[in-house]
């Protein structure tokens, strides 16, 4: 059987109504297209949710990091290449490379870790039990990305609560959980608009710890890291579960323009 | 000089990470692609913001209505056709037709009104002064859309304040105003997630009354219309301007699934 190439490449446009006041694509919109590319890549190779959902399995994003070299500007065409770096029993690493189709520059790199879960028990399930471990035929271990390896995002108990939001319909994804990218948007919304006049996001590293659901209250606890980055712990609670539980932990690094 | 066709048609995909838990494209995401199509159409014909902004002019959305027949489902390809129905001195009417590229069904219709403004004075400016009124060569008056004509969205002083939000970085557009579509998302977020399990949006009609800016507080005043629709007045204020001013008025109609 003829296999598709290990690396899948998908084209997008930095649409003007997804751009911020600097005429740059919002990081959340770039992240969404990276996740869309991951979805297309896995479906095209028969280990995506089209195959999995009827079998009560699904991919769940566990870690996601983006290293931004230059954000796509309004109307710029760009491609997202994505591939599986390796696969273990319960987790798989997927990388990303974003390239401008206008000038050929690398715009961003990404790394992610996904768990395969049983959608009924919500427990991890064996990746190699899917299509006799066919995913192994798509592992591309040689292509390197210069983004540093994912490391544990540490946050101390000195983090200070800076805001709180109630999640809504527009925060949800097609699994009726809070959308992975919406956490990034809410974290970036912690910074005032003035900050974005003088700063761009250079790096974001997100650990998805527990799933939140629409109606949950998200509280944002912030702390400055030794390197000047901001660490954010996003904790969820609701009327049935009044105690706060960490949903997401994240580190965001800005660069001065 | 050879003119482009009056009607411009642009293809999009209902990307899975822009879909809700019903695996349907979010209405906000559809609205964004309609505005992107309007932007592409006007730029392609040399009366878009590429031509206008260096001349200190810009289009400002004044009215936007969407009539939904069926929302695109996840992965569905669809096209947005758009054209100028007519142009007056200060306003132009632009229509939309959204068609599935998978099954050919009409998915939605749209109507909009745009003002041309001087970006320095923020005052309306003469549309026919742009390229000697070249827009007149693109008026497509014959193609009809079955969406009813825009009518004044009325709201009484009995409307009740139901929520308030502070606008943030992710609410802004590339003009550093609150993004037209974000108002739609905030209005649809007034309804609990349970409502969307049994209802779809059938029609939304938005009047953009005054521009809001990031940091402004938006208050949402709601009232039920005689036909069962919900009327929403979105009022803005901030520390410099503590008195509430109407920014947006809107009517949203749901249909039971």
Write the topology of this structure:
Two copies of one chain form a homodimer.
Chain A: E1 8-13, H1 27-44, H2 49-52, E2 57-68, E3 77-87, E4 91-100, E5 106-118, E6 160-166, H3 180-188, H4 193-198, E7 199-208, E8 217-224, E9 230-237, E10 245-256
Antiparallel strand pairs in A: 1-3, 2-5, 2-7, 3-4, 4-5, 6-8, 7-10, 8-9, 9-10
Helix pairs in contact in A: 1-3
Q: Report low-confidence residues of chain A grouped into runs of 5 or more.
A: none
Structural class of chain A: mainly beta
Q: What assembly state would you assign to the polypeptide chains in this entry?
A: homodimer
**Rg result of chain A:** 18 Å
Write structural notes for this entry.
Two copies of one chain form a homodimer. With 257 residues, chain A is mainly β. Chain A has four helices and ten strands, in the order βααβββββααββββ. In chain A, strands 1-3-4-5-2-7-10-9-8-6 form a ten-stranded antiparallel β-sheet. In chain A, 41% of the residues are buried. At the A-B interface, α1 and α3 of A face α1 and α3 of B.
